[in-house]
């Protein structure tokens, strides 16, 4: 059972109370006070979660696996996983960029499946907007982009029998 459990991730407008249930979240989403995480910055970084499908699940929500989502680059899922057996986070990815992408990529190459949960989600307080990052973000992103290219090559060596790649 090589599976990680994906928690759909959302942003909630600053000043709004964070939702305590899926019903509250859906209400905020309906009014524009919540949206999928990175909705304005990198929609494709969360797209494989398939928020439309998650939103349309029949209620009432309960903690369960709703569906599996196929891995696609550049997915950055938020997930829970067993304490053992999951590849460790590569600590070379410091600061901004490619940290969650590299982790999800390795999970995929290592043969893990991604199961999206219903009845659970994570929420970030405040909308992530362009220009809302610290000054060194672009340099960090550039450094980590170069690191990610070599990281992918390392995965081929680490998992030589895997038919999967990033």
Automatic annotation (TrEMBL):
Its cofactor is Mn(2+). Pfam families: Glyco_transf_49 (PF13896). It is a single-pass type II membrane protein. This is Beta-1,4-glucuronyltransferase 1. GO terms for molecular function: glucuronosyltransferase activity; metal ion binding. It comes from Atrichornis clamosus. The keyword Repeat does not apply. GO terms for biological process: protein O-linked glycosylation via mannose. Pathway: Protein modification; protein glycosylation. Keywords: Glycoprotein, Glycosyltransferase, Golgi apparatus, Manganese, Membrane, Metal-binding, Signal-anchor, Transferase, Transmembrane, Transmembrane helix. It comes from the Eukaryota. Belongs to the glycosyltransferase 49 family. It is found in: Golgi apparatus membrane. One of its GO terms (cellular component) is Golgi membrane. Its main location: Golgi. It catalyses: 3-O-[beta-D-Xyl-(1->4)-Rib-ol-P-Rib-ol-P-3-beta-D-GalNAc-(1->3)-beta-D-GlcNAc-(1->4)-(O-6-P-alpha-D-Man)]-Thr-[protein] + UDP-alpha-D-glucuronate = 3-O-[beta-D-GlcA-(1->3)-beta-D-Xyl-(1->4)-Rib-ol-P-Rib-ol-P-3-beta-D-GalNAc-(1->3)-beta-D-GlcNAc-(1->4)-(O-6-P-alpha-D-Man)]-Thr-[protein] + UDP + H(+).
């Amino acid at each position: 059972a090589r599976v990680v459990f994906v928690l759909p991730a959302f942003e909630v407008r600053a000043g709004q109370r964070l939702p305590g249930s899926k019903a509250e979240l859906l209400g905020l989403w309906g009014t524009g006070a919540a949206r999928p995480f990175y909705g304005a910055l990198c929609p494709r970084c969360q797209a494989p979660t398939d928020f439309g499908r998650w939103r349309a699940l029949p209620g009432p929500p309960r903690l369960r696996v709703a569906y599996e989502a196929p891995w696609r680059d550049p997915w950055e899922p938020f997930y829970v996983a067993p304490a053992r057996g999951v590849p460790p986070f590569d600590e070379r990815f410091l600061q901004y960029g490619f940290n969650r992408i590299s982790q999800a990529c390795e999970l995929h190459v290592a043969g893990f499946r991604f199961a999206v949960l219903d009845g659970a989600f994570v929420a970030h307080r405040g909308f992530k907007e362009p220009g809302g990052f610290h000054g060194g973000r672009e340099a960090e992103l550039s450094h980590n982009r170069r690191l990610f290219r070599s990281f992918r090559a390392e995965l081929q060596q680490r998992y030589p029998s895997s038919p999967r790649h990033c």
